[in-house]
């Protein structure tokens, strides 16, 4: 059985990221970008969604690419 996606994007390496299924739930690997705002530095987070919930290890990186945090979700 093959899942059908409502939306997704491709990484530079051709991997499928930021998938939303037909029920509008986030699934699989995601990269979230938070821009700089009112003096607060921006960052990017990467991790895995399962049925719209964060799952496993999520990593936060500065916009320069330096890892600044790591959290574990279940």
Summarize the structure.
The protein is mainly β and 74 residues long. It has no helices and six strands. It is globular.
- Uncertain ranges: none
Tell me the fraction of residues in β-strands, as a range.
over 45%
Task: Report the helical percentage.
Answer: under 10%
Mean model confidence by pLDDT:
88
**How are helices and strands ordered from N to C?**
EEEEEE
Strand tally: 6
Structural class by helix and strand composition:
mainly beta
Separate helix tally = 0
What kind of sheet is the major sheet? 6 strands, antiparallel
Give an overview in words.
This protein has 74 residues and is an all-beta fold. It is 0% helix and 62% strand. The protein is built from no helices and 6 strands. A 6-stranded antiparallel sheet has the order 1-2-3-4-5-6, with no helix packed on it. It is globular and about 40 Å long. The protein starts with a strand and ends with a strand. The model has no long low-confidence stretch (mean pLDDT 88).
What does the secondary structure layout of this molecule look like, with pairings?
Blueprint lengths: L4 E6 L5 E6 L4 E9 L8 E8 L2 E10 L4 E7 L1
Antiparallel strand pairs: 1-2, 2-3, 3-4, 4-5, 5-6
Which features does this protein show?
mainly beta, 6-stranded antiparallel beta sheet
